[in-house]
Amino acid sequence: MNAYNKGSLAVQERVGVRELAAHVGRSITPGIRPVAAAFLEHQPMLVLGAADAEGHVWSTLLTGAPGFVRATGPHTISVATTIPVVDGAPVGTIALDPRTRRRMRLNGIARPSARGFTVDAEQVFSNCPKYLQKRELYAPDLATPAGVARRGAALTPDQERFVRAADTFFLATVAPDGADASHRGGNPGFVRVDSPTELSWRDYPGNAMFLSLGNLESDGRAGLLFLDWSTGTTLQLSGHAHTEYGLEGARTTRFRVERTVEIPSASPLRWSRPEYSPANPSLPQDSA
User: Fold this and answer.
1) How much is the pLDDT for 56?
2) CA-wise closest residue to 205 among 220, 225, 185, 227
3) Are 4 and 200 a contacting pair, CB within 8 Å?
4) What's the chain's average pLDDT?
5) Cβ distance 149 to 222 under 8 Å?
6) Which pLDDT belongs to residue 288?
7) Are 154 and 197 in contact (CB under 8 A)?
8) Is 11 helix (H, G, I), strand (E, B) or coil?
């Protein structure tokens, strides 16, 4: 199985990193190695990227006691959750540990199960810690229940401030041959709110795979997840995205908001203030 689809190959060619991407792509395997299985079983959260039954793409935070995600074989993981999945749907997952600045991605096919769902792995790989903020995990807040979901079609002023203050978000994308969930990080302000229905961000240099941008080449549907690390509130956005390519490799992704879901205290996990990644590029206001 080729590590990359046509969209990713096209972006790699446009940016001039085909050889580097081919080298990096050798790290993508269909199997879950013992070190990857051990990493998964220690994680209290997993981000799921997938389309719902109506075709809208979402990035969703799943949490649980360590072990709620576990490998049940060399090619399958099991996730304990009440979040439904579409049987046979392609999904992307990312397990990110701010404590160690490690992350692992697993993409495959989802199946409902007695404890939640399973994923038959097709792509498994780790990413470098670039743009990943370090945080310490406090004791979970089990006394505060999740609030009522607030749904909309555009960002409220409070949600605009939420996005502008973010140093991290998760991006879900899809393509004819699968789905992907990835991480984006930077100093607060790296995501711009251009209007209540329009966001944009610079695409920082990464691992040269271009899985997310490659998916957007063929299918513009996308889902974003923002997390308030201190309160557990989540903000999910579903819509469409495209990438604009400028001079000297500059890239900007623009996202059109179509649906919003904000859930107060959606996660019981409570994290410390961040230690920003030294790889984060400076923003204009950083040096003002």
Assistant:
1) 97
2) 185
3) no
4) 95
5) no
6) 37
7) yes
8) helix
| Separation in Å, CA 100 to CA 5, 136, 158 | 31, 9, 31
Quick one: CA torsion of 29, 30, 33, 39, rounded to 10 degrees?
90
Strand partners, 205: none
| 150 SS3 class | strand
Q: What is the pLDDT of residues 63-117, one digit of tens each?
A: 999 999 999 999 999 999 999 999 999 999 999 999 999 999 999 999 999 999 9
pLDDT digits (tens, 9 = 90+) for 2-31: 689 999 999 999 999 999 999 999 899 999
The token pair that represents 171 in the structure block: 């991006």
Q: Nearest Cα to 147, choosing from 53, 231, 217?
A: 231
- What sections of 138-203 are H helices per DSSP? 157-164
Q: Which pLDDT does position 206 carry in this prediction? A: 86
Residue pair 58/46 in contact (Cβ under 8 Å)? The answer is: no
DSSP assignment letter at 137: B
Residue type at 49 in one-letter notation: G
Residue 122 predicted with pLDDT over 90: yes
Cα distances (angstroms) measured from residue 259 to each of 18, 81, 232: 35, 23, 20
pTM of the model: 0.96
Q: Is residue 5 within 8 Å of residue 177, measured between CB atoms?
A: yes
Q: How many CB atoms lie within 10 A of CB 153?
A: 11
Cα separation, 48 vs 258, in Å, equals 19
Q: CA 264, CA 149: separation in Å to the nearest integer?
A: 7
> For the segment 26-59, what is each residue's pLDDT rounded down to a tens digit?
899 999 999 999 999 999 999 999 999 999 999 9
Between residues 2 and 120, which one has the greater pLDDT?
120
Query: Which residue spans within the chain are E strands per DSSP?
Result: 45-51, 57-63, 69-73, 76-80, 90-97, 102-113, 116-127, 150-152, 168-175, 178-185, 191-195, 198-202, 221-227, 234-245, 251-263
Residues in the chain: 288
